[in-house]
Fold this sequence. Notes:
Elements: H1 2-22, H2 27-35, H3 39-66, H4 73-89, H5 94-106, H6 110-138, H7 140-150, H8 155-158, H9 162-188, H10 191-199, H11 201-212, H12 221-245, H13 255-270, H14 279-287, H15 295-328
Amino acid sequence: xxxxxxxxxxxxxxxxxxxxxxxxxxxxxxxxxxxxxxxxxxxxxxxxxxxxxxxxxxxxxxxxxxxxxxxxxxxxxxxxxxxxxxxxxxxxxxxxxxxxxxxxxxxxxxxxxxxxxxxxxxxxxxxxxxxxxxxxxxxxxxxxxxxxxxxxxxxxxxxxxxxxxxxxxxxxxxxxxxxxxxxxxxxxxxxxxxxxxxxxxxxxxxxxxxxxxxxxxxxxxxxxxxxxxxxxxxxxxxxxxxxxxxxxxxxxxxxxxxxxxxxxxxxxxxxxxxxxxxxxxxxxxxxxxxxxxxxxxxxxxxxxxxxxxxxxxxxxxxxxxxxxxxxxxxxxxxxxxxxx
Length: 340
């Protein structure tokens, strides 16, 4: 029930932000710009995203090899894309399908592959932080103006007195203390041991820990980090190509790609909407105001670029899902039982 509620809230938030971002935008203006879109730049965007996808599969394979598994790049790629396709339809299902397919094809334990995926996310978070830092150094003036204009605290929040802020802090600490004491009480009554016996939590946790620490066993760490940097640098190429694809944004400086990447990446972390719908449109269009782009123009470009990125991802994901269907026909192999 809680998972379903979370998915519904994510979709509702995405639709709300999308409606707010697109309000007042005439459909004719959007269609006119779509007709003028340059096919060559869209093709470059597609090729760049394809290269990104292959590099992500190679990087994931490096983590799995560090755990002693040897899936081919093709199987890792098709499992990753099939998971992406599933995640577009059912939020949160992508990682599970991705790991299940690799278990069927290469007998990789799900706990280890899940741990490796979380490691991927943490590495991407670190890389995003690096790009955010570079953006702040190079475009600090523009970002500061953006933050002052569009990220102001609500009136009721800014009106809180110092005593009220102290009260909020004390209430937060009390909630944390009650939660901690409650967990300790349950563990002291043996709940942890019963759960471990029933769910084999210790074994699952060990597999998860191995996957999470897989980055320490990568054979070539320098290559791993180079691939990670290239993946994120290609995101800038995608945005720059999409700026050039429309006449209304063709003359924007390359720094606009860096700023847009920083804002939309930060939005995907802080506003978890499905496929970044709504949050991408809102942040990208408002960020372009710092470059003198009217809000309507920025909204048109944000709608266009998000549509292209989503459609390309959907195309690649569908191809990967078709390629991975053969894994579903293969029964899951149980790991061999060691003889005493």
